[in-house]
Here is the input.
Amino acid sequence: MHGQPYLAAAATALLLSACGGGDNNPPALPRLAAATGGTLAACADLVTRVAFPDTTITAANAIAAGTLTIAGKPVAAHCQVTGQMFKRVSPVDGKSYAIGFEMRLPNNWNGRFFYQANGGIDGSVTTATGDVGAGRLDSALNMGFAVISSDAGHGTPNPAFGIDPQARLDYGYQAVGKLTPMAKNVIQAAYGKGPERSYFGGCSNGGRHTMVAASRYADQYDGFLVGDPGFRLPLAAIANIAGAKAYAALATTPGDLSTGFTTAERALVSKAVLNKCDALDGVADGLVQDTKACQAAFKLERDVPTCTATRDGSCLSAAQKAAIGPLFAGAITGTGAKIYASFPYDAGLATANWATWKFNNSLNLDTGAVGLIWQTPPENLATFNGPDFALTGDLASMLAKVNASNAIYTESAMSFMTPPNPDNLGILKNRGAKMMVYHGTSDPIFSSDDTTAWYEALRAANGGDAANFARYFRVPGMNHCVGGPATDQFDMLTPLVNWVEKGQAPDSVLANARGAGNSGGVNADLPSIWSATRSRPLCAYPKVATYKGSGSIEDATSFSCQ
Ligand SMILES: [Ca+2]
Here is the structure.
């Protein structure tokens, strides 16, 4: 099988030839050899057998089968290795830092390494089960991967670590660069050979880590699984703070932002979006598959009633329309500079996840990250108050400071947090590595429009088509990484491995709803009229899941990617 020309590239070359464009045919991309696997040869003695610079292995323990369960499945027997890298005391804030990690090494190994990139602002070593895709359908550990998880260089999920410049850089990208060769060394010691194939994946900030790794460390990984990426996280956070200001101004209960755009009003807008957009994909089924056509078809001003009297959930006030419409179009600073990206109108606005991001995290999570981790200089830690910072801070100042550096903070947040040259993935592409990206179109914090714009730029930088090494799958209705009125349970790691190691490029990925009885946990946002087991194809962009005109609307086989 090795050495066989990459089929999709070959097909593209033929097509270009047929069209007379043969002068610029790209060479077929290499196919990487499939991993063959191995058996764990050492566990407890890894504490002494692993000798890697700047690394302490603190424990290595055999974990019996069934000690952990994931989505109701017992996790097979494995070895848990814990440790620290680069333990130090900061010369800036006087506090102790280290890059804490754990690895979980299955006794029956599939020969692969998985870097589990975590979410939020990191700061804790979450269990290295390698959760992939939404809805916990399976995990990399259960599939036989050796998995690493880390705190990315700070031991608590508190933004105060941002006072230390090195902790900023470790969080941004350097922990990944330090952990990767160490982890491969541990795998070598445990199995007698290093990983044959290496993968990297995560959602949210984990999606950001993955895009950064695809840009900075493409020589060290073969497959990248990117979920709802906050790849321009500082900008998304400032845009969300802009939203907090707008919702605070609309609030009927001072300090409770959710009263600026109530659940009933958000359900009203979601319904108005469905009225205009649901059938554009061939069937009114509660899912807006054709996101692009929907943005042209739906107008907030026109399609949602304007209140003539008191707000009662059946209308939006003129002031609400004037404030909320521009947030979807893309928040701006007081001087008119666009901060981040537009957000698509979609069906998933009425959920608790949407509300939490817009009305709570905007005050209590984005603020600490912007003020303490990303601004140069940071705000005063001793007096910092998140809600005050959001509601009284100046957006243009925040935007300038996340782009600033100085003698202490030598890299700006936009430098250390975002992928350098994100539309240039030449190293990844040319060595045969692959990337799969998914994004919920009702994600309230990182916009799928931003990911779409990035993917379009990637296509443009590759002659108009990046599908021979990177594919993007929108998840209609899905909120941030999970939930929403969506088919949000899917496994993208298996198709990624099959693409990297077998040359099987994924045109679509099967997704299911998580209704009653689902082993991955029931999705409370599912509309009651949906089947508990509704399925859909997630289509590789720019194709759209389209109803075939007959067959059950609960079944993926009634839809095709068009
Ligand atoms: Ca539809």
Observations:
- The two ends are 31 Å apart (CA to CA).
- The chain has 17 helices and 17 strands.
- The chain has a mean pLDDT of 94.
- The CA atoms of residues 215 and 426 lie 9 Å apart.
